[in-house]
Amino acid sequence: MVICCKVDIKEGEKIRRFLLDNNLLNKNYSLKKEDDYLYIPLINLNEDIKKDINELINKIINKIEFVEVNDEYLKKAKKRQMNFRGYLLKNFKKEVEEGLIALSYDVIGDIVILQISDEINEEMRKKIGKTALKLIPSIKSVFRRKSNIKGEFRIRELELLAGEYRTLTLYKENGYKLWVDVEKVYFSPRLGWERKRIMEKVKFDDVVVDMFCGVGPFSIACKNAKKIYAIDINPNAIELLKKNIELNRLQNKITPILKDVRMVDVKGNRVIMNLPKYAHLFVDKALNIVEDNGIIHYYTIGKDFNDAIELFKSKCNCEILEKRVVKSYSPREYVLVLDILVKNI
Ligand SMILES: C[S@@+](CC[C@H](N)C(=O)[O-])C[C@H]1O[C@@H](n2cnc3c(N)ncnc32)[C@H](O)[C@@H]1O
C-alpha cells in the first residue's frame, strides 16, 4: 500500500510542487487522476509528519485527505534509466581513468562505435556492447574500434560487440543525409560542426574542389555553390557518394570523380583538403587547382599552426584568413584547419 495525498485536481500541480520541494513525493510511483481528484504518492509518513504536512498544506488549500492506495493502482513510474556514460563510470571507473575505455563514442545513424582497448577481455567487451545497445537510444549495432585509421582509404577495422552485423547506415546532419558504410569508408560525425562552418562560407558562384571527398559530406555541405568536383580514390566511397548525390538531389551540381587527385585536372576557387595526416604531401596539387584569390581549407595534424603556415608561405603569396582546432587527435596533437587565401603562386 502507498500513502497518497488526495487533492482536488485543480490544486494538484501546486501540491505536487510543494511535496517535491519538501522531499515528500514518492518518485517510485506515478500520479493518478480519477474523476476530479489527483492521487499524489508520498514517501512513508508517520502520524506526526502527516499532521505537519496537513498544517502546511492547509495553508495552500483548504482540504487535504490522506488515503492508502494499493500500489498496483498507481502505475510504477519508470525508473530513470542510467545513460551509457554513467554506466561506464559506475562500473569501469579505473579502466576509464587508465584510458582503456573511452567515455566518448561515435553514433553514425543507428550504429555506435565505442573505444575499448584490446586489453579488456572479449567477454567484457561484449557485455559493454550489449549495455550500449540497451542504453544508447535508436541503436541497432555496436562496434568497437579495432585498429587506428590506416591506409590510403583512411579506414579502420571494427569488431562487432552487439546487435546486427550491418555496417551501412543513413546519417543526418546540417539538413542533409548521407549513406555511410562505417567499415568501407572514412567518416567522422565529429566533423559535423566543421562542415557547417564551411557550408556557411560557400558563395553561390563558387566552384568547389573537394580533393578527398569520401562519401561526400563536405561536397554536399557546399550545395549552395555553382559547381562541386568531388574526388576520391576509394571506389566504395565514390559509390556511396553517387547515392548521396541522388539522395540530396544534387545531380546538377556535384561531379563524382574516382581517381587519385594527382591525376585529376580541374580548377576551382574553393579547395577542400580533408586528408589531415597526409595533406602536406598534396599542397603543390592544391596550388595547381586553386585559382588566384581562391581559398584552400587545409586540414592537418599538429600541436600548433606554425608548420602549416610556414609550408604555405614558402610556396605562395597567401594570407591566413582563419585558423582553428577542429578536434583532438592524440594527447598532444590536434586536427587543425587553416583557411588560406591564395593571392598568387
Ligand atoms: C580523411 S578521409 C576524408 C573523407 C571526407 N572528406 C570526410 O570528411 O568524410 C580522406 C579521403 O581521402 C581519400 N584519398 C586518399 N588519398 C587520395 C588520393 N591520392 N586521391 C584522392 N583521394 C584520396 C581516401 O580514400 C579518404 O576517403
What does this structure look like?
Strand 2 and strand 3 (37-41) form a beta hairpin. This protein starts with a strand and ends with a strand. The longest helix is centred in the N-terminal third of the chain and has 14 residues, at 47-60. It has helices spanning 12-21, 47-60, 84-91, 93-97, 122-135, 192-201, 217-221, 235-247, 283-289, 306-315; strands at 2-8, 32-34, 37-41, 65-69, 106-108, 111-114, 141-145, 158-163, 168-173, 176-181, 207-210, 227-232, 254-258, 268-273, 290-302, 317-330, 333-344. The chain is α/β, with parallel strands linked by helices and 345 residues long. The relative contact order is 0.07. The chain contains 10 helices and 17 strands. It has 3 domains: 2-73, Alpha-Beta Plaits, CATH 3.30.70.2580; 84-166, Met-10+ protein-like domains (GMP Synthetase, Chain A, domain 3); 185-342, Rossmann fold, CATH 3.40.50.150. The protein has a 7-stranded mixed β-sheet with strand order 13-12-11-14-15-17-16, sandwiched between helices. Strands 2-3-1-4 form a 4-stranded antiparallel β-sheet, covered by helices on one side. The structure holds S-adenosylmethionine (SAM). S-adenosylmethionine is lined by residues 152-154, 186-187, 191, 212-214, 217-218, 231-234, 237, 260-262, 274-275. Keywords: Cytoplasm, Methyltransferase, S-adenosyl-L-methionine, Transferase, tRNA processing. This is tRNA (guanine(37)-N(1))-methyltransferase. Its EC number is 2.1.1.228.
